[in-house]
Each structure stands twice: as structure tokens, then as C-alpha cells.
């Protein structure tokens, strides 16, 4: 058994759709990342997956993504029964790629008020040169050491996706303290480039002031935060001030 406070549990969910309560979980997978006696984080500890009865039919368009069908989950446990057995542990934190999605279903009541690390938000800061920041693009762009290709397949199934994410998290932890990853995860995503529109792919440092002002009032939280971050950088604000969450009143 892994000692308390020496591991982070990476989780991944497959669901019937994107938002509860209209949609529900049909699979959960997990892979622990463990702090070794040598002080180095590594893949290890507990791992696994459980099918979950979502209590409703799985739409065909969703079945086509993860290939979990109604017959697969008919005799599986319901989410409130299985979730705490995975989410509640002595882990330092839970982690997921784009953790805001998992957090819609892994509520504080089910997770025991666990802290969360979002590997997507952390990847934006640690690996800004990646061509994209999806779990799978990072997998093939970075080629994490020790990642077993077959164990990480098929994609869009809970355990393989958690397993791949765990390798990203392991590498993050080898360069960045847990506290910093948690801090970044609590903020909007700091996008390294403009994500859409005529300036798509342009680094924020190359965006002119007029366009930057428009982006700083964008409806998307991550775009707004990233533009405001660049505005503050240009005015020479201290790094601590730039890291603060943007003023939501600036939306309109």
C-alpha cells in the first residue's frame, strides 16, 4: 500500500454526454503517480477501471466515441456507489487532463473535497511549444519515457487515457512542485497563442495593443485571461499580480 501523502491519483471519465444532470458517467479509470523513496515521481501504485451504470441510455453518437454500449453497463454499479471508492483516498490530489470536465461529475461530496491538478492547464505553461495540448497530441509530441503504447490504447477509454495523462503528470512533477501545479490549475488556462480567428496561432507577444484589448474582453475565460496576462506583462506588473485571476467585470 502506498503511504499517505506520497501519490496523486489521475482519473479519467467516459460519459453519456458533456454535462450533468442530463448526462452521467459510464466508466472511470485511474492511474497513480507515486513519489519514490529517492524523491522522484514515477508511475506506480493503484490503477484500474470500472464500468458505471449511468441510469440512462447511452446516445449512439457517444457510443461511437468510446464504444461503451448499454449492454456493457447494465449490471455495473451506479456512480454514487462506485465514485467514492476511487476518488476518496490518501492522495495529495486528484488530477485529470482538462480537469474541469471531470469535476462536473466528481463533486466535492464524492471526492471528499479533494484538490485537483489540471494537466492541460499545466502543459500550457510548461510545454508552450506543443502544436496542440490534447492528451494524445502531447503523447506523440513529447513521447514520454516508459509509456507502453498498447497499454495506452484504445483512446477514449477511461484507463488508457488516465494512463497517458499520468505520464504527463509524472514529467511535470519532476520539474515543478505540486503546489505550483495546484496554483496554475486553479487559474484560467494561460494560452501561449491566439486559439482562433484571423490571428490564430499568433503568440500573444506579437498581438498589437488594439487586438489585445478586444481579446481581453472575450467571452472565453482562457482567452480573456491570457490577453490580460500579456497586457499586464507589457506594463511591467509583478509576476504575482499577473498570476492573479482576471477581473470578471472586464467581460463586458
TrEMBL record:
Give residue ranges for domain Exonuclease.
7-178
Sequence intervals crossing the membrane: none
Q: What InterPro entries does its record include?
A: Ribonucl_H (IPR013520), RNaseH-like_sf (IPR012337), RNaseH_sf (IPR036397)
Query: Is Hydrolase a UniProt keyword of this protein?
Result: yes
Q: Which domain of life is it from?
A: Bacteria
Q: Which GO terms describe its biological process?
A: DNA metabolic process
Keyword Signal attached: no
- Which terms in the Gene Ontology molecular function aspect does this entry carry? exonuclease activity; nucleic acid binding
The EC number of this protein is 3.1.11.-
- According to the UniProt entry, which residue ranges have a biased composition of type Basic and acidic residues? 228-237
**What Pfam families does this protein map onto?**
RNase_T (PF00929)
Q: Where is this region: Disordered?
A: 228-252
Q: Name the keywords, alphabetized.
A: Hydrolase
Mind telling me what this protein is named? Answer: Exodeoxyribonuclease X
Q: Which organism is it from?
A: Sphingomonas prati
Amino acid at each position: 500500500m502506498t503511504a499517505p501523502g506520497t501519490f496523486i491519483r489521475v482519473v479519467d471519465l467516459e460519459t453519456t454526454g458533456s454535462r450533468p444532470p442530463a448526462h452521467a458517467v459510464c466508466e472511470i479509470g485511474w492511474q497513480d503517480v507515486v513519489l519514490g523513496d529517492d524523491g522522484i515521481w514515477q508511475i506506480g501504485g493503484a490503477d484500474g477501471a470500472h464500468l458505471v451504470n449511468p441510469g440512462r441510455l447511452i446516445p449512439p453518437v457517444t457510443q461511437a466515441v468510446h464504444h461503451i454500449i448499454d449492454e456493457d453497463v447494465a449490471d455495473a454499479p451506479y456512480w454514487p456507489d462506485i465514485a467514492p471508492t476511487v476518488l476518496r483516498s490518501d492522495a495529495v490530489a486528484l488530477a485529470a487532463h482538462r480537469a474541469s470536465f471531470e469535476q462536473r461529475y466528481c463533486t466535492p461530496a464524492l471526492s471528499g473535497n479533494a484538490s485537483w491538478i489540471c494537466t492541460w492547464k499545466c502543459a500550457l505553461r510548461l510545454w508552450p511549444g506543443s502544436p496542440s495540448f490534447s492528451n494524445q497530441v502531447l503523447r506523440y509530441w513529447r513521447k514520454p519515457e516508459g509509456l507502453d503504447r498498447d497499454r495506452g490504447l484504445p483512446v477514449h477509454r477511461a484507463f488508457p487515457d488516465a494512463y497517458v495523462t499520468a505520464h504527463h503528470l509524472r514529467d511535470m512533477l519532476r520539474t515543478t512542485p505540486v503546489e505550483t501545479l495546484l496554483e496554475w490549475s486553479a487559474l484560467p488556462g494561460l494560452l501561449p497563442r491566439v486559439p482562433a480567428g484571423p490571428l490564430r496561432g499568433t503568440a500573444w507577444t506579437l498581438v498589437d495593443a488594439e487586438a489585445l484589448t478586444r481579446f481581453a474582453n472575450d467571452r472565453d475565460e482562457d482567452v480573456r485571461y491570457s490577453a490580460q496576462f500579456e497586457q499586464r506583462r507589457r506594463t511591467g506588473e509583478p509576476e504575482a499580480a499577473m498570476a492573479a485571476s482576471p477581473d470578471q467585470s472586464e467581460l463586458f
